[in-house]
Specification:
By secondary structure, the chain is mainly alpha-helical. The chain has one domain. It contains 2 helices and no strands. Helix 1 packs antiparallel against helix 2. About 5% of the residues are buried.
């Protein structure tokens, strides 16, 4: 999932450089959503790991 976040971030940067504002905003928004989703899943996985007692 983090890979997809980075891909959309690169797409947003490239689209912004070439002047495609709408595409850059959409790709940036998708990258932001995926990044926060990744963070939430990471925290949940860490909590589950501590609860189970590695």
């Amino acid at each position: 999932m983090l890979r997809w976040t980075l891909i959309f971030l690169v797409v947003a940067i490239v689209a912004g450089v070439f002047g495609f504002g709408g595409i850059a905003a959409a790709a940036g928004g998708i990258a932001r959503i995926l990044f926060f989703l990744f963070l939430v899943l990471l925290v949940v996985a860490l909590i589950m790991g501590f609860v189970r007692g590695w």
